[in-house]
Amino acid sequence: MNHVAGGVERMLSTLMNELVARGHDVSLLTWDQDVTAPFYTLAPEIRWHKLSIGDAAVKAGFKTRWQRAMKVRKIVKAEKPDVILTFQNGAFLSLWVYTLGMNVPVIVSERNAPTMFDHTKAGKYKFLWLQVYGLAPHVIIQTQSQKLMYPKWVQKKIDVISNPVFPVPDTPAKQTDSLHKILLSVGRLDYQKNQIVLIKAFQQIMGRAPDWTLRLVGNGKDRAKLEAYVAEHGMQDRVEFTGDITDVLSSYRAADLFCLPSRWEGFPNALAEALSCGLPSVGFAECAGVNDLIEPGTNGLLAAGMDNPDNLAEPLLTLMNDPSRREKMSIAAKTITQTYTPKAIFDQWEDVLRRAAR
Predict the structure, then answer these.
(1) Whether residues 155 and 195 fall in one domain
(2) Which of 50, 133, 199, 290 registers the highest number of CB atoms within 10 A of its CB?
(3) Model confidence pLDDT, tens digit, residues 194-249
């Protein structure tokens, strides 16, 4: 959680804060060191237990795992939780093993679609990982379409809870600048989010869209590589890197078009927020999560396949050159806030947690 501005960390923080506001007693357990600060604000009532054993970014050996297990059991024994909610498969398996025999239900919220395994080294263990979810009494995923990607016996334990999409405060209509338009992408700069394919697609079309700039909001381990590619191809004056920013809303409001070129997602917060701000959006048709939120021809367009700059360039240029179509899509995009209302989403969370505790 240490200064991490990711979607998992954001949803975890938002959910905990809401549960506290609803009168629940909430504790947070992470692998972090004692000297750690969150990127997102946490309610002061939340008791944060930082294991401070080993490096969270390094795969732990047996000794570290044993030490963590003993400390986790001590914390759980003192807290006496009604239910333990884990985010992601690795945290679930660890907590399930560490708390064996303690008679506390451990449930899992998976924040990525199972298609993640098709793009990572863990893919060779895909079959086993999908079975592991069945150890939990409840499995929370984010879209109905992803439910069918799990084994049938695991599907019986699944609850589908999407992320909340908060209404955007009314603001004056964007003043269109015919000389400067922004293609925006928001997300961690890494392999999953796949910004390199967006940069390559923009490289193909920027000569035919001279009034457009590509703006990348976010940070990550691929930033240096992406900046090097931009510099090598002389695109510095057309591609901007902002790093992490706290006021992301202002970036959405300043933009004219949004693109999320991810290889996989769960329920992409950045895309949902872009749509709620009225930004027509583009992504890949085979990206789970993205294809759940973008309705082709209504609030955006989907590029054929996956990870292909040629395919991505086509819908981007189509919308860049059609302001009237972008305007119609903008109106449709804002209706996403009516589908994923925060109260309804948090009511679902509360219901699952109560059922698991019983």
Answers:
(1) no
(2) 290
(3) 999 999 999 999 999 999 999 999 999 999 999 999 999 999 999 999 998 888 99
